[in-house]
Design a protein that fits this description.
GO terms for molecular function: lactoylglutathione lyase activity; metal ion binding. The structure is a single chain. The chain is built from two helices and nine strands. It is of the alpha+beta class and 150 residues long. It folds into two domains: 1-61, 2,3-Dihydroxybiphenyl 1,2-Dioxygenase, domain 1; 74-150, 2,3-Dihydroxybiphenyl 1,2-Dioxygenase, domain 1 (Roll), CATH 3.10.180. The strands form two sheets. Strands 5, 6, 7, 8 and 9 form a five-stranded mixed beta sheet that branches. A four-stranded mixed beta sheet has the order 1-4-3-2, covered by helices on one side. The longest helix is centred in the middle third of the chain and has 14 residues, at 82-95. It starts with 10 loop residues before the first strand and ends in a 20-residue tail after the last strand.
């Protein structure tokens, strides 16, 4: 028998500082803390929206994200409109986030979809994009997907 329907349940990220990570992910993505565990050497938080788990944070990393190692390349979130992408960009700028590109960029040359590419406080690469509305925005590379090489 094959799997009939498959969806991502949630994503778990290792972080170096749980409180700092919560302070980043909750205002940017509108997450609420729906569960939290704090023990001597075990700290974690479950973040979600409308009671649905989306992201788990595990304070067990000893260093920042390393894009040269096997594992997560980047984590992408889709929103409905370009206006939501721009609102997230404003919040990220207020938080001092580092961006891979200046402003909204297209996923590829001539694409209608695109967004912003940035890192969290531990250097994990993130993307917030809209499926349409980005027509005419620049693409950082003509032939390669924007999200592939940031």
């Amino acid at each position: 028998m094959t799997i009939a329907a498959l969806r991502t349940g949630h994503v778990g990220l290792n972080v170096t500082d749980l409180d700092r990570a919560i302070g980043f992910y909750t205002p940017v993505f509108g997450f609420e803390v729906i569960g939290k565990g704090v023990e001597e050497d075990r700290r974690y938080a479950f973040l979600g929206r409308d009671g649905k788990l989306v992201l788990t944070l595990w304070q067990q990393a000893t260093g920042g994200f390393d894009g040269t190692r096997a594992g997560l390349h980047h984590l992408s979130f889709e929103v409905d409109t370009l206006e939501e992408v721009r609102a997230a960009e404003d919040r990220l700028r207020e938080l001092g986030a580092e961006f891979a590109y200046d402003g909204v960029v297209a996923h590829r040359e001539g694409a209608a979809s695109g967004g912003i590419f940035f890192t969290d406080p531990d250097g994990t690469r993130l993307e917030i994009y809209a499926p349409t509305g980005v027509e005419g925005a620049p693409a950082p590379a003509e032939a390669a997907p924007t999200c592939g090489f940031f």
